[in-house]
Design brief:
The complex is a heterodimer of chains A (about 350) and B (about 325). Chain A has about 350 residues and is mostly helical. Chain A has 16 helices and four strands. Chain A has a domain of about 240 residues. Chain A is globular and about 65 Å long. Chain B is about 70% helix and about 0% strand. Chain B is globular, with a radius of gyration of 21 Å. The chains are: A mainly alpha (about 350), B mainly alpha (about 325).
């Protein structure tokens, strides 16, 4: 490894409370940010933005949101797709009702509305636990998708039942609608992704995050030491849904532009995001990014290799993808339940000690 | 009697029949859950897989034909024979036992002592794998399953009720067969678990793993057996649903129908699965009939879940489930 710390020499609270205590890690973090903000926008083209970068950024937000609920607070939810749909429809209604307001605030508001809906569906979590709760969140999934399909007010009485994003500008640049440029969309999503990651990271290492982890590890014991389970669980649902709502809003307004709810926000979306955090790592912000990157890149890679390289028909490639994803979930749960993030952590530890075994 | 009331009764009867089918799927869940504490999300996909395999064996399809053709550029599709239904069912059962062994050997042996929620997520992974595997093996087109079950309206009931009440009830023959089969299946399962050596061993394992181990019961064998039995139940459910609406991807979604049934009835209770199935079946049909037109229809997708959710808030262990006792 490029660096080795030789002991714990922190002399101030500021140094002790840093997110990245090691100088090298901190510089790497700034370097990644600099590249993401300062280099990629100048090189990004439509294909990379739409096939890789935008889905990666947006799914990262959703995965961070779900990770807070599942990984940190231990409440398994299968309703992610529906909560993304809430964000998408909220931002659509806001965009069409108040066209003069900046899209940025619409997206935040959509997150807030989703947080409210999330808390509503989180209320049963006080009574029911484990996979009873997981199944109960399916109620949200089916009910909300049905609601958006059947109540015409939500899609502004459009004939097709679809919603499509109107053109909106931020700082004079078009970010939604079919004519928006790739780099503008990318920057818009990137700002949200960085903001969400920053917020999530700091929430989870503070008091709130410790409360969540206490609830996750044993809720009765947590209650006895003074954690209010009502507040902690509902807070987890609210924060998680807020992020997922933002992801849904961006997914619709910036990435897809037009959405048919049952197709885009169905139960498969819920599973996809759940798989991202299982593969990436439960209870890790870095893991959310790693899992999102992995599951966004895998289909692209398979498509290029199997369809483009070997000339297989696309449906066969789709079956192979299903098999690989399922297999990976099982392998990760057996071999490394903490996912890619743990592999990364272990690799770092090993390299730090190398060449000594202990 | 007024027309609406008769119509409502007819809807209810059909709901009961649908409920029997839900209960059939839910049974598979309960069996595995009781014996191994695994909540098997893949049960629905197992039904789909067994139905696909059954059709494939009956029609003499070449397995993985699509893959082989793509890799070697051949043009295989059928062996060109048609097997009798009974033989195919037995062969399919063999495949399901093999599957049970593989699942136990390669997945759950490595996950012993993990938290239940981890096991649940593993079965979601298994569901995805089997979905891709089944489609790759047998192709993803919609297939017709015909094992000689009667189909269409039962004219005897129609005529009798018409003569007696002046209104003919529409009840599908297949639903009646399904109800009979489900009843027989439950009877067989109860007899199996009460009166045979293996059944008793199964109940012992469900009761207490370690105590069962200490009296010489092989957990491994029991788990393979339970998965096989669940595979058999999945096969029956697959045949019934497949005959009703064709063997296709949507068959795997019946698992999603069975989950609220389980929540309502309790995860650990066989009678619970049946009663829950009936309640959900009748409830969703009646709700769709009375309330559905007012709020836009297609309420069947979520009604069961919302009902189960509301129910769970008041009774978290379901109707017949064991009381959840928490210890610190």
């Amino acid at each position: 490894m490029l660096y080795r710390e030789a002991g714990d020499f922190k002399t101030s609270y500021v140094a002790d409370g840093q997110t990245f205590p090691i100088w090298f890690d901190r510089m790497r973090y700034y370097a990644v940010l600099a590249i993401a903000f300062g280099v990629i926008p100048f090189f990004v083209n439509d294909y990379y933005a739409n096939a890789v970068l935008l889905p990666f950024l947006i799914y990262s937000i959703a995965a961070i949101g779900l990770n807070i609920l599942v990984g940190y607070c231990g409440q398994v939810s299968l309703g992610t797709g529906a909560f993304m749909a809430v964000g998408a429809y909220a931002v659509y209604k806001l965009m069409t009702a108040f066209p003069e307001v900046n899209l940025f605030f619409h997206v935040l508001l959509a997150g807030g509305i989703t947080a409210f809906v999330g808390v509503m569906f989180g209320l049963p979590s006080l009574r029911i636990k484990g996979f009873y709760l997981a199944v109960a969140t399916l109620a949200a999934q089916f009910f909300l998708v049905w609601l958006f399909n059947r109540v015409p007010w939500f899609y502004n009485y459009s004939a097709s039942g679809q919603i499509s994003a109107p053109d909106r500008t931020v700082f004079g640049m078009l970010v939604s609608g079919p004519n928006a440029e790739a780099w503008a969309k990318y920057m818009f999503c990137l700002v949200f992704t960085v903001g969400v990651a920053f917020l999530a990271r700091n929430l989870t290492r503070g008091m709130q995050g410790r409360q969540w982890m206490a609830i996750r590890d044993m809720d009765i014991a947590a209650e006895i030491i003074g954690v209010n389970p009502l507040r902690a669980k509902l807070m987890a649902f609210a924060v998680s849904s807020f992020f997922i709502g933002i992801a849904g809003a961006l997914f619709f307004a910036v990435y897809l532009g037009a959405v048919e709810v049952g197709e885009v926000f169905g139960i498969n979306k819920s599973f996809l995001v759940l798989f991202m955090i299982i593969i990436g790592g439960l209870g890790s912000i870095f893991g959310s990014f790693a899992g999102a990157a992995f599951l966004v890149l895998l289909p692209v890679l398979l498509k290029n290799v199997l369809v483009g390289g070997l000339g297989w028909p696309t449906d066969l490639a789709a079956h192979v993808e299903f098999m690989i994803v399922g297999l990976l979930i099982i392998v990760f749960l057996i071999a490394e339940p903490h996912g890619l993030a743990q592999l990364w952590r272990v690799a770092k530890e090993k390299l730090r000690l190398w060449p000594f075994p202990h | 009697m007024p027309e609406t009331l008769l119509y409502a009764i007819e809807v209810m009867t059909n709901g009961l029949m649908a409920g029997v089918l839900y209960a059939l799927v839910a049974l598979g869940f309960v069996l595995i859950y009781k014996a191994s504490g695994i909540f098997n999300y893949a049960q629905g996909v197992m039904a789909l897989f067994s139905a696909l395999t059954l059709v494939g064996i009956m029609d003499g399809q070449v397995p993985f034909a699509h893959l082989i053709n793509a890799v070697f550029g051949t043009d295989l599709h059928h062996f060109g024979w048609t097997l009798p239904a009974l033989l195919s069912i037995i062969l399919t059962m063999g495949v399901m036992v093999l599957l049970a062994w593989a699942v136990q050997r390669f997945i759950f042996r490595h996950l012993v002592n993990q938290e239940p929620i981890i096991l649940f997520m593993a079965t979601i992974g298994l569901a995805y794998f089997m979905e891709g595997f089944g489609d790759m093996m047998w192709g993803s087109d919609i297939k017709k399953l015909d094992v000689g079950l009667p189909q269409g309206m039962n004219s005897w009931i129609d005529e009798t009720t018409f003569n007696a009440l002046g209104y003919g009830f529409f009840i599908d023959n297949l639903d009646i067969v399904a109800a009979v089969v489900a009843t027989v299946l439950v009877g067989v399962l109860v007899a199996f678990s009460q009166y045979t050596k293996q059944g008793r061993a199964m109940r012992a394992v469900a009761d207490d793993h370690q105590a069962a181990l200490s009296v010489g019961i092989s957990l491994n064998f029991i788990w393979i057996m339970v998965w096989s039995v669940a595979g058999f139940v999945a096969l029956v459910a697959g045949v019934m649903w497949g005959a009703k609406s064709g063997v296709q991807f949507s068959l795997s979604l019946i698992a999603l129908k069975a989950l609220p049934v389980l929540m309502l009835g309790g995860f650990t209770s066989i009678p619970g699965a049946i009663v829950g199935g009936l309640i959900i079946g009748v409830g969703e049909k009646l709700f769709e009939f009375f309330v559905g037109p007012m709020i836009g229809g297609a309420t069947e997708n979520w009604f069961a879940y919302v009902l189960a959710l509301i129910f769970l808030v008041f009774r978290p262990q379901g109707l017949f489930g064991e009381k959840i006792i928490e210890r610190v």
